[in-house]
Each structure stands twice: as C-alpha cells, then as structure tokens.
Design a protein that fits this description.
Blueprint (H helix, E strand, L loop, with lengths): L1 E4 H15 L3 E5 L15 H5 L4 E3 L4 H13 L3 E5 L10 H14 L9 E6 L14 H5 L5 E3 L4 H13 L4 E6 L2 H4 L1 E4 L12 E4 L4 E5 L3 H13 L5 E5 L2 E3 L3 H11 L2 E8 L4 H12 L9 E5 L9 H7 L3 H12 L2
Parallel strand pairs: 2-3, 2-4, 4-5, 5-7, 6-7, 10-11, 10-13, 13-14
Antiparallel strand pairs: 1-8, 6-12, 9-11
Length: 327
C-alpha cells in the first residue's frame, strides 16, 4: 500500500494495462515525449514505443474516430482529450457512432474504447479550460460514464474501463489530479463499474455526489457532525450505469437527500437522481429532495471572484445540509 496522487493512480493503471495486454495503446495530443499535458503518460513512449503511444495532431474528431475504428479491429485504445472543452468536434464519433454500434449490430461488434477527459473548474481556467461535460454522455444510451474522486477508485475503475467491451467515458476532475492523495494497493485490483461507494456513514441526511465535490461534501459532513447532524456521503463513482440501489438504500435510511455536483443544475445528473427518489422513495422522504449545483450559465467564469460564486464548496454544502436537516 502506498500513498499516491490521483494522476499517479491514473498513470499506474494505464501502465499496468499496457504491460498486461499488447492490444492496449494510447493516443492523444502531447501524450508522447511531453507525457501529456498533465503528465499522465510520462515515460510511456520511451517504454512502449511510438507505435503504442501515439502523438496526434490537434484534431479531436480524428483522435476519437481513429480510436473507435481501432476498437472495431480488436484493439483497446485509450484516447485522451486534453480538456473537456475541446471534446465537441469528436461528439459525433463517440455519441453518434460508438454509443450505437453494439445495439446496431445486435451485440456482434464490441467497442472497447476508453476516452479520458479532464474536466471541471476551480483552477481559474476560464471559458475553455473548465467545462463540465458529463451530462451529455450521461444522457446517451450505449456509453458508460465513470467519474472517480480518489486515487484508489481512479486506478481500479480505469483498469476496469480498459478491459470493458463498451465505450467508456472516463472523466477526471483536473483539480483532483495533485490535490487529492490516498492509499493505493500495491497488488493487482479492479473495481466494478456501476457501483457507488458510501464514503461516510450517517443517519440524518444523505449526500449524493461525485468527482471533486466528494471532498467538499466530506468536509461539510465533518462540520455538521460537530453540530449534531449525521450526514451519509454517497460517492456515485460511476454515473452510467447509475447505482440506483445504493442511492435508494441510503435515502430510505436517512429520509433526506442533498445532491451536489459542479455541472449546471438543469438536466444534470442531480435531476435524474431527484426523479429516481421522487418515483421510488417518496414515502421515505422527510424533506424535499434538494440539489446544490452549478448555475445555468454557459460556462465557468475566469475571474476568481465569479468562479467562487459558481463553484459549490464546503461552506455552501454545509449551509444546504443545515437547512435540510431542520425539516
């Protein structure tokens, strides 16, 4: 067991899978000699060669399109999009094509491709380096969407994603890359896609979250525990498939639910969780299902003061928990 940063866990997962399986390869902008803009592939080209660590032009549609084609031919590509904000030229390749292939071929043609996408704000990245894009994939049948928040989860889920025969969108919050550290086993392990994890047990209110917000929710839960409120924090880890059983089990126990995510509030993951609770846990609720999310503005502001207004944080989450606990 060793303490690693989240980006180190991501790097280790890819390295182990490339060493284990010769059909796994990586492609993206600057992934070769530079080692990726976040150094996720540092040293890979020297070890695995340019045939398996492929520097691409600045052409996201080609990156994802070639990766999907390679998956059709039995390879297992890991395509990296440097920032979520630049994914849009590749939307048709992933959402319009890869997501529909298994269904369209009656399961005859698998698409074992992983698209790694750094996303999220809190780094003063402004309009084109801070976007949250997960809801677009979350809405799309045929895709799996994974959103880890800890090094342990990132490594185990990335290894599972690489081995999966379905297209997986693996979103990694940029701010967690070096900010978040945690224990990662030395031994081989893989985590199942589609299983949430209760990061903190509680009895009074459930907090459902993912990504960077997990850490703010845990901080807020610590604050509320000193005020006599016991908050249970459920880390979704996988957005699609959504672990409905874990969400329902927790809320049926506590009777109250707060859903926290950084993405825009309208039509986001939180809206689907809210609908689930309204349909299947209504009689257990002792208060309104509540969401604390990013506002409905086109993208993250650049000015730090405005970014702070946009981003949920531990204080805002604690305030929402106090209000909900008072019902």
């Amino acid at each position: 067991m060793a303490v690693k940063s989240l980006i180190e866990a991501v790097r280790e997962a890819m390295h182990e899978e490339m060493a284990r399986d010769s059909t796994v390869f990586i492609m993206g902008e600057d992934v070769g000699k530079r080692g990726g803009v976040f150094l996720a592939t540092q040293g890979f080209v020297e070890e695995f060669g340019e045939g398996r660590v492929i520097d691409t032009p600045l052409a996201e549609a080609s990156i994802v399109g070639i990766a999907v084609g390679a998956a059709f031919r039995g390879l297992r590509p890991i395509a990296e999009v440097e920032f979520a904000d630049f994914f849009w030229p590749a939307a048709n390749q992933l959402i319009g094509e890869a997501a529909r292939v298994c269904y369209g071929t009656n399961g005859e043609l698998p698409v074992p491709v992983v698209v790694r996408i750094p996303y999220g704000g809190g780094i003063h990245g402004g309009l084109y380096h801070s976007q949250n894009v997960e809801s677009y994939f979350f809405h799309t049948p045929g895709l799996k969407v994974v959103a880890p928040a800890t090094p342990y989860d990132a490594k185990g889920l990335l290894k599972a994603s690489i081995r999966d025969n379905n297209p997986v969108v693996f979103v990694e919050h940029k701010k967690t890359y070096r900010l978040v550290r945690g224990e990662v086993p030395d031994d081989e392990y893989v985590l199942p896609i589609g299983k949430a994890d209760v990061k903190r047990s509680g009895t009074d209110v459930t907090v459902v979250t993912y990504g960077l917000m997990l850490h703010y929710c845990l901080e807020a839960a610590d604050t509320l525990s000193q005020e006599g409120v016991s908050a249970e924090v459920v880390d979704l880890r996988t957005l699609k498939p959504l672990d409905r059983d874990a969400i329902l089990s927790s809320v049926k126990k506590t009777g109250k639910a707060l859903i926290v995510h950084e993405d825009n509030i309208t039509g986001g993951v939180g809206a689907e969780v809210s609908a689930l609770l309204a349909e299947e846990a209504f009689e257990y609720l002792d208060g309104p299902v509540t969401r604390l999310c990013g506002p409905d503005i086109p993208t993250m502001p650049f000015a730090p003061t405005l970014e702070d207004v946009y981003m949920p944080n531990a204080d805002k989450i604690a305030a929402a928990l106090r209000k909900l606990a008072a019902y």
